[in-house]
Automatic annotation (TrEMBL):
The chain crosses the membrane at residues 44-64, 71-90, 117-138, 150-167, 173-191, 203-230, 250-272, 284-307, 313-335, 347-368, 380-400, 421-443, 455-476. This is NADH-quinone oxidoreductase subunit N. GO terms for molecular function: NADH dehydrogenase (quinone) (non-electrogenic) activity; NADH dehydrogenase (ubiquinone) activity; quinone binding. NDH-1 shuttles electrons from NADH, via FMN and iron-sulfur (Fe-S) centers, to quinones in the respiratory chain. The immediate electron acceptor for the enzyme in this species is believed to be a menaquinone. Couples the redox reaction to proton translocation (for every two electrons transferred, four hydrogen ions are translocated across the cytoplasmic membrane), and thus conserves the redox energy in a proton gradient. Its main location: membrane. It comes from Kitasatospora indigofera.
Length: 536
């Protein structure tokens, strides 16, 4: 199917249940007040399994002898794999909802809806957490991190990130966002060289400030509408009393600020480079994909459902922020010096800020042209970005074990680790949107089309300019992999020293992400099948 048809194909499948009433499968039973709930356990299984696995790991850590603590990592990986598998029973049918209440008119308001939108972003969150867990297995052992605490925090954060896309009221959204965020602070701080504590403090202070602002916004919205359910808020905002309209508008702005922080939108991006450099490398990869996916899902929900009446206001604001975000991220990545310590991780951090700008474009376009296209384009690009970005962090972990993570440390990598270098080159070309990384080009075309269809020609021009800027630093990094240099010296000298054998989990992570990126580039229609409806 041509790329131009992606938004049209994805949109109806992703958003058909966002603007209407979901199919209620779990209402109050024999209780006019709606206080007795019949919980749909199948619907809540994906985040619930991740949470229960976290508790099981924490308890097992108390009783397992030290020599068997390595089993905790395997159990965590198995738990996340089971959580991903729990998405399958929810596919192919009508949306399932639970934790529902009824008002006197009999209208249902549900706090949890497992519709197509939720399933796609839960796949991104749980799948990203699974890859991050595979990447973490060797890191926990080699860095001597506390295994029980590490795996508990990772699983807890993943459960919050999986809960957020299915949340349909502001209270659940805030709780899910904090469940995803609070363990992440501690994960960053687990690094023992002092850098982790500094990074965690910056991350914590900026996040807490954003959360406080968002909670104030939730209070304003509740005061103006009398409800926390997104569907009720959407119906109430156009009819709010004149004296409460400024309160509602201020509340909407403040709520958006909290989610903008999670997506690392300018000017709420300043925590990203220091946090990624200071965190353990798998945690940095986790934050770049799963943390961003959680914030993006929340932003899409509150704009597409709760605040859709204010699309004429938040649409232009998000469009400007998207342009500023992609420009700030790409220009900062362009300025990274090849001899800077941790320069490769810092470049990936700034690159993730630039990618956040691209991810924001379709949501901004929805403010100008309400419809399903934005959700399809955002989900497709998010899935593509998640695979290749985690793959790049996996290769950074490989290189960091033997040398360092300066950009110069990658010079001549092809001579010593041929397949690793080829994998990183492919990931970088996907991020740049160049063949043979067809899937990256596929995603950028879809996002570009969303801007053009909404009449945002100026934003499409800004995006095109930023793609050219990003091409330069991605290609410079790719060229270093094949250039002769210090990394190639042992092989050139005929020393015959074999490369240090990689841990199985690290090899599996690189191979898994590379295989996924290659398959998606050869068969880009698989993105349509996962995010567009043939599998769901």
């Amino acid at each position: 199917m041509p790329a131009a048809q992606l938004a049209t194909t994805l949109g109806p499948q992703l958003s058909s249940h966002l603007t209407g009433q979901p199919t209620v499968t779990s209402l109050a039973v024999a209780d006019p007040g709606g206080l007795i709930q019949s919980v749909d356990w199948v619907a809540v299984a994906p985040p619930l399994i991740a949470a229960l696995a976290g508790l099981a790991v924490l308890l097992a850590d108390l009783f397992l002898p030290e020599r068997r603590k390595k089993l905790l990592g395997r159990f965590a990986v198995a738990g996340l794999a089971l959580a991903v598998a729990a998405l399958l029973p929810l596919t192919g049918g009508t949306p399932r909802s639970t934790f529902c209440l009824q008002d006197v008119q009999g209208t249902a308001g549900c706090s949890y809806v497992a519709d197509h939108f939720a399933l796609v972003f839960q796949l991104l969150a749980l799948g990203g957490a699974l890859i991050a867990a595979l990447l973490s297995v060797h890191t926990v052992d080699e860095a001597k991190l506390p295994g029980g605490e590490y795996w508990f925090l990772l699983l807890s954060s993943a459960s919050g990130a999986a809960l957020l896309p299915a949340a349909r009221d502001l209270a659940t959204l805030v709780v899910a966002l904090e469940v995803a965020s609070l363990p992440a602070f501690a994960l960053v701080a687990l690094r023992r060289d002092g850098r982790g504590a500094e990074a965690a403090l910056k991350f914590f202070l900026s996040s807490v400030t954003a959360t406080a602002v968002m909670l104030l916004g939730v209070a304003f919205v509740y005061a103006a509408t009398g409800s926390l359910h997104l569907g009720v808020i959407a119906d109430a905002l156009p009819h709010a009393p004149a004296q409460l309209k400024p309160v509602a508008e201020a509340g909407a702005v403040l709520v958006l600020v909290g989610f903008a922080f999670k997506v690392a939108v300018v000017p709420f991006h300043f925590w990203v480079p220091d946090t990624y450099v200071g965190a353990p490398l798998p945690v940095a990869g986790y934050l770049s994909v799963v943390g961003k996916a959680a914030g993006l899902a929340g932003l899409a929900l509150v704009t597409s459902i709760g605040f859709r009446a204010y699309g004429h206001s938040w649409g232009p604001v998000l469009a400007v922020l998207a342009a500023l975000t992609m420009t700030a991220g790409n220009v900062a990545a362009l300025r990274q010096r090849p001899d800077t310590e941790h320069g490769a991780v810092r470049l990936l951090a700034w690159s993730s800020v630039g990618q956040a700008g691209y991810l924001l474009v379709p949501i901004a376009a929805a403010g100008y042209r309400p419809g399903p296209d934005a959700l399809g384009a955002t989900a497709a690009y998010g899935l593509i970005y998640g695979v290749v970005n985690l793959g790049a962090f996996a290769v950074a972990a490989v290189v960091g074990r033997s040398t360092g993570n300066r950009l110069d440390d990658y010079r001549g990598l092809f001579a010593t680790r041929r397949w690793t270098a080829l994998a990183l080159a492919f990931f970088l070309l996907c991020l740049a949107g160049l063949p043979p990384g067809v899937i990256g080009l596929f995603g950028k075309v879809v996002v570009f089309r969303a801007a053009v269809d909404a009449g945002l020609g100026w934003l499409a021009v800004v995006m095109a300019a930023n793609v050219v800027i990003a091409l330069f630093y991605y290609l410079v990094w790719t060229a270093k992999l094949f250039a002769p240099g210090p990394a190639a010296a042992p092989a050139a000298a005929g020393a015959g020293a074999p490369a240090v054998r990689l841990p199985v989990s690290l090899t599996a992570t690189v191979a898994l992400t590379a295989a996924a990126a290659v398959v998606l580039s050869v068969l880009p229609q698989l993105v349509l099948q996962v995010a567009g409806g043939s599998l769901f």
